[in-house]
Amino acid sequence: MQRSLAPAPVRLVLWDKSTPYDGPDPPLGDLILRDRAVLVGLVMNPDLWFGEAYTTRRLEIRGPLVPVLDALSRSAAAEPSWLTRVSTLFASPNGVRSARRNVQHHYDLGNDFYRLWLDEDMVYTCAYFPTPDAALDEAQRAKLDLVCRKLRLRPEESVIEAGCGWGALALHMAQHYGVRVKAFNVSREQLALARERAAREGLSNRVEFIDDDYRNVRGRFDVFVSVGMLEHVGRAHLGTVAAVLRRCLRRDGGRGLLHFIGRDAPRPVNAWIRRRIFPGSYIPTLAQVSARILAPAGMSVVDVENLRLHYARTLALWADRYTEARDHVRSNLGEDFCRAWELYLAGSEAAFRTGWLQLFQVVFTPRDSLPPYWTRDDPHQALGARGDAM
Amino acid sequence: MQRSLAPAPVRLVLWDKSTPYDGPDPPLGDLILRDRAVLVGLVMNPDLWFGEAYTTRRLEIRGPLVPVLDALSRSAAAEPSWLTRVSTLFASPNGVRSARRNVQHHYDLGNDFYRLWLDEDMVYTCAYFPTPDAALDEAQRAKLDLVCRKLRLRPEESVIEAGCGWGALALHMAQHYGVRVKAFNVSREQLALARERAAREGLSNRVEFIDDDYRNVRGRFDVFVSVGMLEHVGRAHLGTVAAVLRRCLRRDGGRGLLHFIGRDAPRPVNAWIRRRIFPGSYIPTLAQVSARILAPAGMSVVDVENLRLHYARTLALWADRYTEARDHVRSNLGEDFCRAWELYLAGSEAAFRTGWLQLFQVVFTPRDSLPPYWTRDDPHQALGARGDAM
Fold this sequence. Notes:
Largest interface: A-B, 47 and 48 residues
Shape of chain A: globular
Oligomer: homodimer
Radius of gyration of chain A: 22 Å
Structural class of chain A: alpha/beta
Number of helices of chain A: 16
Helix content of chain A: 40-55%
């Protein structure tokens, strides 16, 4: 196993002794296994056992968490193990009911919990840092605005948002771009707060928060936007998103944006993440989104931006704030929960840093619609229905 | 057949009479068939017969060429006919020898011919118009520069260019960005002129023009760039491009750009275009490029821009210049050739206007390399090897 860790400068330490290690001295960190069962588990099903054993302190990391996970990620095999592949056969079916249950598992942990470590607008997706040292609050607002500008939103347009979290984007679009939004979500805790905010900001007449599955969207809209929802749809349901897009986006002048965690090549979600953090999740490739959602929906890709380093930075700032709030989280949710979430945040940061995860923003239009602008640099105003700029 | 043309406002006129037409009056244009065989051919194999009959005046279009083709494109079926599908089984294998023959069919028509209607730098790919009314010369230079800036070229870096045309990009990169370029091409006519230019501009020591197939690229380079070559690779050889990328791009800090005509969904190339204009060509989808070239090469997509309206504009300007040079072309190459090229230019413009063809610029890096910039707006300088901006 020490061999399989190489070339990561991480030393394996067993319950009774350390193992031969010939990497850089001193190592970046130690991976400490407390008993034999963990070792066997890691050999048999490393993805699942790493998280399970870390959570319960049967596996510990001595040294800086993110750099050690980063080093382990770099030495990871390009191909997932056979067990990982097989385990995906038992993935959640993500029907309307199980999808709701899966979303609630994560997002209904309590608004108070997320308020401890998210930004002030409670945006739980990748931020956009105009400069790498921008503050989190500023970077999340910059992300909301980036999405609006890429879509060239115009006053009075109708927007459908699939998966709206605590409503920050919906409210931003309505307030700063004058659009009308229907925002779908199946997390009750999130919706309650979102509605409260809309009322407080006087936007209840422009933004409707709807407690329903994205599959039940009805009507035609100028704009479709979804930020951080696609990861929860599941591999088997990518075609369902295509059907929704085809049905609900106006053909002439319509446009959309998908913001999602993506992969370079297909790979199952880490088994531990799927069990403990995001049940029912699947991280699609850009090719899958293109061939299984956009093409069958009759959409053309206009623009793709990969913001993976921005997500690594976002996660680092979340982890800092999480650490500050650790005592509080621990007293409410227990030590195991604390450690699981520390691993989830640090492991995700490492995955974005090392390129195992990507963050794609994809702008698209119906094929026979014009792209929303002549060049990216254009003033932020959409092209007219047929060729203002031609 | 008149029914199948609807909803295009185009009237079908047969050799002996016109057919029932109930579209807008007057129609946008007439489609005139001179004999019964053309009608039968169009029903059986429309893609091939349309071009063949137009070339020989057995089919004529009365009215403005691009708008009529545009209208016909809009009414085209989303799915290609069975005959079109079957005919692709006999597509060129594009081995090293046939690929060379296919390229020479088109690009060795003579530099004098292309000089008649291309821009002064002889760039035979989609231009980039900073504003829609920019001149062609300016727009082609803007495109060359856009490619260099997206790649964040730095002095003394090594660049491989696969398919270099008459050398405009290679020379631009060397002159304005101080890089060293090895540029591959299998068109002798193009290479001869490219070498002459390099000598004239004093760049022969920085730019090497190589008469060889892209598959024979050897060595490791900082940057890989290919503008308008992928369309000639052929569907069966996309994996070969992956192997070349994996082999020749430096893992740490390497980056690349593919500029190519693309599709939303897989579809065979128009049979007439494949026979008369671009033998061996295949227009890939973004998903195919992503899943069959970039993913197996271990590359991450950093940025995608769709410039289809810019290609429509480029083709319109080429067609204008072609029309001015028509008498000259006709006297050298004959009327059939003239008409075939008019149809090719006008049909391509219509396809880019109506979204049947896309123009993608894709920037990518090896997975474990950093993206070349923190944000798109960053000064045009590549990030250092590991995280200047982190």
